[in-house]
Amino acid sequence: MPATPVRDELDETPFARLQHEGRLLNAVFKGRTTKPRRVGFRGELALRFAPRLADEARPPELCCEQAMAVADAGDSHLPFFSGWLLSFEYLRDVAEVLGDVLHARGKYFLFCDNIDLTRRYQVTYRGAMFYVLPILESTVYNEMLELLYLDKNELKSKARQQSWTP
Fold this sequence. Notes:
Blueprint: H1 5-11, H2 15-20, E1 24-32, E2 38-48, E3 62-72, E4 80-85, H3 91-98, E5 107-112, E6 121-125, E7 128-134, H4 140-147, H5 152-163
Parallel strand pairs: 4-5, 5-7
Antiparallel strand pairs: 1-2, 2-3, 3-4, 6-7
């Protein structure tokens, strides 16, 4: 496959290892953001793989769904990651898979289906702080917008303005 600027920048980020391991699945978005040398991903992060028999490819046994992350070319850490987990117990799997790309200064949000809707948790694992929040009948994207007080219409308007060229 010929090198492209996006592929080269992806190869210079923590996404390179995850891509090589086959963990970045069902990408809704994987490419440059509006910030120079920043790459984003939105899709699923495979956490556990099913045993392979011969050349048979099987879907992962466990995924972090609705994952969103950004990485800067030349930086070995993810500054931001968010995703959905069926159970709080899978936080360990996320932390183990991301491993050395986690950093104490990173912002990591996990929305879990099986925690009390009135509770929020901060969990330090491998030196990184995970903010664990409940989710019910929503999406990680919408929950993050609400959590960060962002207006979806303003974001769409900004995106249109940035993609418009005279």
